[in-house]
Amino acid sequence: MLSSEPSLEKRLALRLSLAVGLVVALAIAAVAYVGADIAGDVARNAAYDSTAARILGIYRRIEWIIYTMVAALAFSFVGIVRASRRAARSVVDALENHAALLHNLGSRNLRAVEGLEAMRSRGVYDHSACETAIAHLASISEVARENADITRNYSRDYHPETREVDLAAVVSDVVDTEGDIARAGGVSLRWSPPKERVVVRGVESDLDSVVRNLVSNAVKYTKEGGKVDISLDRIRRRILLTVADTGIGMTKEAMSRMYDRGFRANWRGPVPGNGLGLSLVRSIVAPCGGRIRATSSPGKGTTFNVTLPLDMTRKPSLLARMRRLF
């Protein structure tokens, strides 16, 4: 099974924090090293003195600690370099996906305009051409809206009003609407609501987007005769939403880029979509302290696990709180 955890930025920050901590510790150890070196000289000149011999032992231990810290620091810097290279690759991939997304939008807009222009030049109303143009314009509007929502969700100044939401009811509504699509495609959509209400404090429309995108993707990428299972559990102070399918699965390369805006794997076939669904889900879950994980095997299916806090209210950053004080 392949596993994906979208925490590259966190790992890079952790590496940097570790490096800074090691540098500070190394400076402190350097001061101790000087003192230990002096103590070592004294001990060598009077090795027969038991007190001096103990000082020599301490000196050797400090030397070992320093060598260990230097090795750890070197290892940390190697990790930082590798994480930086992966981060740079992610930025390049994201820019390429944005370029592809803009190209796709431009193509749809051009087709819509060409259809309407052709109808105008002929002076004849063409219902099919109008329907096609409207569909292209609607898809452009949807992509623009979702892209704006993703950018807004990552903004530190965005603090939407929250209220208590029954997440089980949200899942049931999504299952009702996606159930018809699943049945039409010969896919079994299974959902057993929990006996008790699962209440989360959050934005209902955001929670609906999370559930709907995951369930919709599972149904779309599962072939006839396959299954999609949805479960909802409360684990201490957090909620676990699981959407598992027996669909076509994902490759390792696809999983490494599945949260990029506009990314769509080339093995998807004739499946509708704009490549923003998982990006939108992550932009809702991550800023409020949630987590999304995926495991997948090509040809065997994919499982998404979304962990949400009971209170999804976004906390102001430290910088924002300081601005309020001044």
Concise summary:
The protein is of the alpha+beta class and 326 residues long.
Would you kindly provide a written description of the structure presented here, covering whatever features stand out?
The protein is an alpha+beta fold and 326 residues long. It has three domains: 2-90; 91-153; 163-309, Heat Shock Protein 90. Helix content is 60%, strand content 15%. The chain has helices spanning 8-45, 50-122, 127-153, 167-184, 204-220, 252-257, 277-285, 318-325, and strands at residues 2-4, 163-166, 188-191, 199-202, 227-235, 238-245, 291-297, 301-309. The strands form two sheets. A six-stranded mixed sheet has the order 1-7-8-6-5-3. The protein has a two-stranded antiparallel ribbon with strand order 2-4. The longest helix is centred in the first third of the chain and has 73 residues, at 50-122. The chain is elongated, with a radius of gyration of 28 Å. It starts with a strand and ends with a helix. 25% of the residues are buried.
